[in-house]
Amino acid sequence: MATRIRPSSKRCAVIGGSGFLGRHLVEKLLDKGYTVSVFDIRQSYELPGVTFHQGDLCDKLGLLTALRDVSLVFHCASPAPASDNKALFERVNIQGTKTVIEACTEAGVQKMVLTSSASVVFEGTDIKNGSEELPYAKKPIDYYTQTKIEQEKLVLKACNKDRGFLTVAIRPHGIFGPRDPQLVPILVDTARRGKMKFIIGDGSNLVDFTYVENVVHGHILAAEFLRPESPICGKAYHITNDEPVRFWDFMSDMLVGLGYAAPRYHLPYFLVYGLALLLWLLSVLLRPLVAFKPTFTPMRVALAGTHHFYSVSKAKQDMGYKPLVSLKDGIKRTVESYPHLRHGV
Ligand SMILES: NC(=O)C1=CN([C@@H]2O[C@H](COP(=O)(O)OP(=O)(O)OC[C@H]3O[C@@H](n4cnc5c(N)ncnc54)[C@H](O)[C@@H]3O)[C@@H](O)[C@H]2O)C=CC1
Ligand SMILES: CC(C)=CCC[C@@H](C)[C@H]1CC[C@H]2C3=C(CC[C@]12C)[C@@]1(C)CCC(=O)C[C@@H]1CC3
Fold it and tell me: Positive or negative CA dihedral for 10, 171, 42, 254?
């Protein structure tokens, strides 16, 4: 049974703290009495007790200023997967993470919690109750995921008890909740354009969706358990709601909650995947002439049409993790937080 040890210092920095997950994390850290600095390329809000440092995480000098006197760093910055920009993913997730590690060690930071992704092991085919023992994807589903793999490897490798720098990676999956800029807005946009009528495949595939407060809880537990004697040093942990759900039931609950019709008609998985691949290739080939972004990318089709859910046994055992908000409550809170995205508004 895991025993939680209180952190020696509650002065922390959240890199990517202006983002969806980052801001929820900042709010919870403040509630728990931490002193918080945010480092982000943009400032999206103001909060009493939070010091903002605006800058690019590839800039070590900027980071060093933000990390002065900080003992714990959460790194949850990344370009959005939908940006589909290989050079940007490589610069920020790989080069930038190397810079973050260097800055942390130079600034005397003792602990670093990385937000990785459960998708680092996903190759577009079924994963059922996958453990952290699964190998990294040899053929990741997109460049974003490819760079998340490299990023996680870098951070876990940097864990060094002798030098007093401890690291851990949290792998959430399908984060949702109030202020999410991705899942609900894309879903509603697709529904408003009349494209949410179809279910890809037979609709029985189970997927993890994780309420944002549970992801935050996993990060803070990891930070608090990160001690030289702890088994979590240099390891990766899945953090989910531990309630795999049919992908299309989850989407239908969100849509119906917001006043839209649930998808009803089935389309064969491989037909949709093939079409999405063709469209994506066309969009790449025609990029110099016309800019169009297909809604159904091969990556989204794979995510929507396969089983991919992960075991959280290791997080339960090593850090006493237990989701705090059920899927049902998470969906209710999320739906209520988007009055402006309701049908007819
Ligand atoms: N949203 C999801 O379903 C999942 C997200 N993740 C990971 O969780 C983390 C947080 O994701 P979200 O909150 O959803 O994304 P987000 O886009 O809301 O937040 C990312 C933040 O990083 C900042 N950022 C990007 N490039 C930067 C740079 N060069 N320098 C400084 N800041 C920079 C952005 O300004 C933004 O505030 C990311 O690492 C993502 O890979 C992992 C699994 C699932
Ligand atoms: C079919 C359709 C239009 C669904 C809309 C929802 C999708 C936008 C989401 C469903 C699964 C989500 C997901 C991610 C982004 C948003 C979805 C594709 C991630 C790729 C975000 C970053 C990660 O690290 C992994 C996530 C997996 C699930």
Answer: negative
Tell which residue, 319, 36, 47, has the closest CA to residue 170. Answer: 319
Q: What is the Cα–Cα distance from 315 to 322, expressed in whole angstroms?
A: 8
Question: How far out from the chain centre does Cα 222 lie?
Answer: 15
Instruction: Note if 273 is an active site residue.
Output: no
Nearest to 263 by CA among 202, 195, 331, 328: 195
CA distance 89 to 78: 8
Cα–Cα dist 28/217, whole Å: 8
Tokens of 117: 């992704």
DSSP letter string over 86-104? Answer: HHHHIIIIIIIHHHHHHHH
- Ligand 1, pocket-test mutation among 52, 73, 78, most atoms within 8 A of CB: 78
- Whether ipTM tops 0.90, in short, is yes
Q: What is the pTM of this model?
A: 0.95
Q: Choose, from 34, 144, 237, 273, the residue flagged as catalytic.
A: 144
- The CA radius of gyration of the chain, in Å to the nearest whole number, is 20
Both structure tokens of 139: 């053929």
- Pairwise CA distance, residues 28 & 63, whole Å: 23
Beta strands 166-172 and 236-239 are parallel
> How many angstroms separate the CA atoms of 330 and 73, rounded?
27
Q: What is the pLDDT of residues 221-277, one digit of tens each?
A: 999 999 999 999 999 999 999 999 999 999 999 999 999 999 999 999 999 999 999
Is the CB of residue 53 less than 8 Å from the CB of residue 39? yes
- Cα-to-centroid distance, 64 and ligand 1 (Å): 20
